[in-house]
Structures are given as C-alpha cells and as structure tokens.
Input
Amino acid sequence: MTSVVALFGPTASGKSAVAVALAERIGGEVVSADAMQCYRGLPILTNQPPAADLARVPHHCVAVWDPSEEGDVMRPPEPPAGLRERIAAGASDAALHARLHALDPGAAARLHPHDRRRVVRALELVALGHTLVPAGDDELWSDATRHPTLFVGLDVPRAELHRRIAERTRAMLDGGVVEEVRALLARPEPVSSTFARAHGLSDVIELLEGAPRAACEQRLVERTRQYAKRQQTWLRRLSRVHLVDGTLPVNEAAAQIDVLLAAERERSPLPSAP
Output
C-alpha cells in the first residue's frame, strides 16, 4: 500500500500549505525535504511553516539544526582538514567531474559537470568511503522502494508563479526578515557554510549594509524566479509524476491528491515494508 506522497513543485507553488491540508485529510505527517528549513534562526527567509500549521499536523525536519551546524543529508564523518581544498586545487570543473566519473560513476551521472560544489562534495564522500548512490538501485525512485511512493507535482503557470514570488518577497521584507537576519548575524557563533548559502540571505545582508530596498527586493525576486525555473525544468524530467493544478484552492488540491492516492492503492496494493 502506498505510504508516502512525495510532493514536488517550484518555490512559491504552495507545497507546504497543500502538504498540511493533505496530511490533515488522510491522517498523515509532513516531512520537509528543504535543507534550509532544517535550520533554526531564519523561519521567515526559509519559509518555514507558521506555528498554526505546525500545530495542525506533526512536522519533521523543521528547525532541528543550530545555524552553526554543517548540514549534510548523509551526516558522514567530517572530512580531514584541508581535504576539500586539496581536491579542488588547480582542477577545472571538467577535470573534477572526470575524476568523479572514474571513482564513482553513479554519483557523476547525477551531477552536472559545472556543479563544482557538489562534485567536490561527492569526491570528499569517495575519499571517506561513502557514495551519493545507495547500494543497488536508487531506493527513492525504483519499484523496490522501501516505502511505496506516489509522486505529485504542483503545476503553476509561469505568470502566476512570478506574481506569487513577487508577493512573497515583498511580504518577507515587510514581515520581519531583516530583523531575523540582524539577530542571526549578532550571534557570537558564526553560521555554518551550509546555512550561509540560504536563498536570499546575501540580499538581506546587503539591505542591512545600506543598499536600497527596491534594488535588493528586485534582485531577490529575479534570483527566486531563476531558482523556480530550474525547479520546474527538473520537475518536467521526473517520471511517474502526477501533475495537479497548483492554482486550485489548497483543500481542492489536497482532495485531488487524495483521489490519486486512492487510485494508486487500488491499482497496485503493495505490501507494507517489513
């Protein structure tokens, strides 16, 4: 029996609200797959669920790390000091990707040759005896997945998505994001290199340093649009994904996913994992 609904969609497509409504409808729980939402300290910037939604259904992987912690999906042992620098020193993106292909072809196949940061991280994992690829088939996407999964994507027209992004950006800047970034920077502990890459953080820091709000807001809107475009491109490449109209009211979108879930269970009732 299908036990997991994987809900995809670009930023500002309404995933969090639909996930809460669906979990409430079917008696489920929400597991955030957004790495930055794992951190405490910037709930507005990272678009964490509001307290009211957190109270409606159980949530996981939200505000569980301190901003000073380095986040890693696998949490492997920390690499020896200087390993990352030695791996990257003097090597072009193409050379690093070729090295990864020779050492871990499965990981290389997952990563774009110019995604230097992740390629270097994959090479670090190789040096530590780990890999980005699970043993055997990729357990998330294969039919042998431990938890049978229904894949759903929220489809939002580009113009509507751009409107939502602009509206959300304005609401963040009006709603306290500058104050929460100021408080974060005032902490004695430095933020981790992972958390320092939080989307929009550099734009708000520039605002704090005296840059005009209009320029920072427009730059953040444009960057978020570009991010959403990459997410939409990735979503279109997914196989076995059911698209749901992301402009529907939240409860209607959740109801449609519930119908898909019931149909999936009817079509292929899989045994529960041992």
In short: Strands lie at 4-8, 30-31, 59-60, 149-155, 241-245. The chain has two domains: 4-70+138-267, 83-127.
